[in-house]
Specification:
With 159 residues, this protein is of the alpha/beta class. The chain is 31% helix and 18% strand.
C-alpha cells in the first residue's frame, strides 16, 4: 500500500508518497488524484513519514532548514541507487557536475549514465538532483523543468 498527500509550494504543487515507513516519492506537476495504475494508493497525510516531510519541506521553503532528516526508500537499479545515494552527499549551497558525481561514485567515465539516473530520481528536492549542473556551470535538464531548478538553486544561494 502506498500513501500520498499533496503540498503547495513556491515551485508548485508537490506529490509526496510513502509506503507507511519511509518516503518513496516526491514529484512535481502532479494531478489531483493518482493515475489509474496506482489503485493501491490511498490519500493519507497522516501516514508516516508524511507529516514530518510536510513540516521539513515547509521549513526548507521558508529558508529555515538546510538538511532533511527523513527515512527515504529509494528503489531503482543498483547503479541508479548508487547515483541517488551520491546525490545525498551534495550539501545545501553546493553544486557538482555530472562528471564529478560520476567520479565520486567510483565510475568516472559514466557522466551520461549518471545524468540518466539523476533524471529518474524518485525523491526530488530531498535527494538533491537539482544541485547537479553541467561541467561548464550551465543549468542542464531537470525533471521539474529548468525554471524550478533555477528557483531551487537561487533559494539555496546559487546561480
Amino acid at each position: 500500500m502506498n500513501f500520498f498527500t499533496h503540498m503547495e509550494s513556491p515551485i508548485g504543487r508537490l506529490l509526496l508518497v510513502s509506503d507507511g515507513e519511509a518516503l518513496t516519492g516526491l514529484y512535481m506537476d502532479t494531478p489531483a488524484s493518482p493515475p489509474q495504475d496506482r489503485r493501491d494508493w490511498r490519500e493519507a497525510a497522516s501516514a508516516a513519514p508524511l507529516p514530518a516531510a510536510l513540516l521539513q519541506l515547509g521549513e526548507y521553503f521558508a529558508g529555515t532548514r538546510r538538511e532533511f532528516d527523513l527515512p527515504l526508500r529509494l528503489r531503482g537499479t543498483e547503479f541508479q541507487e548508487r547515483v541517488w545515494r551520491g546525490l545525498l552527499d551534495i550539501r545545501y549551497g553546493e553544486t557538482w557536475s555530472y562528471g564529478e558525481l560520476a567520479r565520486r561514485i567510483g565510475n568516472p567515465n559514466a557522466s551520461r549514465a549518471v545524468g540518466l539516473a539523476n533524471g529518474r530520481n524518485p525523491i526530488s528536492i530531498l535527494v538533491p538532483c537539482h544541485r547537479v549542473i553541467g561541467a561548464d556551470g550551465s543549468l542542464t535538464g531537470y525533471g521539474g523543468g529548468l525554471a524550478r531548478k533555477q528557483w531551487l538553486l537561487a533559494h539555496e544561494g546559487l546561480h
